[in-house]
Every structure is written in structure tokens, then in C-alpha cells.
Amino acid sequence: MGGPSNQPNPSGSGDAPEAKLRIYFLPNLLTAGNLFCGFVALTKIVEANLTPDASGIVNWMPIKLALGFILLACIFDLFDGRVARMIGVESPFGREFDSLADVVSFGVAPAFLVHRVVLADLFPDHTQIGWLIASAYLLCGAFRLARFNCLATMSGGGGGKEFLGFPIPAAAGLVSSLTLLVIQMNEKERSLGNWNYMLGAVLVMLSVMMVSTVKYPSFKSLGLRSRSTFLKTMLGALVVGSLVIFREKLLFYVLPATFTLYLLWGFVRTRVSRKLRDDVEEDQDEDEDEGTGPTAGRP
Q: How many domains does the chain have?
């Protein structure tokens, strides 16, 4: 009669406000660009004809384009989180969408590419070994992304200034830039020769490093609003200018060197002085004081 109604609430949520799914345009547009680049890379790998022509030369152009799209996906992935933090938005949707895009662009595409270019010729009599190595890389990358997402939802578990395990975008960037360098050095050869063994070993090593417990800096404070000294700014400008002017000669060497240094930094960062580590990592405690921002949800 005059008591509370026993009728169920149509909304099923009582007086609590209805939760809304937040999807922010610009960061997710960049993530969509990442996913698009991964898909285009896969189509170029499938279209590639690696059979030598009458003169014994292989047409590596589709593979080069695929490698270029994977590296372009790395750029999209680098900026989606920074843009999200800059405009002050955070969304679980962005974290999940970013991980799904990363699995395609930095997991499926590099694994398929290295299998097509390297592993298929490395074990011609035992093709299952090539499948195993490529699939191990993909599975380890997916495991690393899932672990990151789980840690990010835990209090203090993830999304801070350090990554647990080698990030999958950096792994894809390293194997892609190395493959591009090897192709550039052997473009007029019938095959990549002994370099195949090196690329196969790199893929195995990266698989292990992605699921390792080695910690890597996230460099999230190195963004559009980060502060730096005059000397660092000038050196950065000179490096960028040199890459633009001599890109055809330097870029093939600078990219693999950069990703390799990042890989090695995870091993030596705990053995160097705190001042040197803060200088290299741009003193990320300063960024933590400003708030972790939405990039906390983006691996």
C-alpha cells in the first residue's frame, strides 16, 4: 500500500546513474590508423611474389611497403596515448581497442612477414619449425598485452612509468627495421643468405623478452609538454634534420640501432646511476605528479 514498491526497476540500476561508454574521437582515430596500417601490411605480404625473376632478382618492394606500414603503425601507437593524455581523456574502450590493434599490427603482421621472408626458407624440410617460431612470437605478444591490461586495472599494478617486459610495438619495430636493413643490403641477391638465421634468432629472443619481467621505461613524460634543456633541444633538432636530409642512407641504420638500444637499456638501467637514468628517461616522476592520464591504459 504505502510501502516501497516491489516492482523491478526497468533500468535495472535503481537510483544509480547509468554508466556510459566513453569513446574519444582523436585518440581512437590514431589507434584506428594503427590497425589500418597493420591490415595493409598483411595485404602487401600476401601479394608479394618472392620468386626470383629471369635475372635472379627478387622484387622486395611489396615487403618493403609492408615493413613501412608496420613502422608507420608504431608512430600511430606512439601518439595515440600522448594525444589522449594531452586532451585529458581516459577510457577502458581506448585501452582494449589499442590492444586489439597492437595484436594485428605488431603481432600478426611481423610474425607473418618474418615467416614468409625468412622462416619458410630457413627450414625447408621442416616447415613446422618456422610455424612454431612465428606463432610463439604472436602468442607471447598477445600474452604480454593481456598481462598489461590486467595489471592496468589493478591498483598500482600497471600503466605507470615502467613497462613489465619488452613492449610489443618496440619488438615489432626492431624486427621490422632489421628486416628492412637486411633487405636493403641484399636487395640484388637471390636470397638473404645467412642473415635469415639472425632474423630468426631475433624473433625468438623478442618472444622471450616480451613475457619477461625485465622493466622498461615507458617514456610517457616525453611528450608535447615535456621540458628539456637547450642543449638537448638543439641535439634533437640536429638529429631530426640529419634524418630528413640523409634519410636514404641513415634511416636504415638509425631505426634498428634505436630499437636495439631500447632493448639493451632494460638490462643496464638498474646498474647505472639514478641521475643518468633520470636524464635518459626524462625524470618521469615529474609526469606522475601531473597525473598518469589516459595513457595509463595504453600499452
A: 1
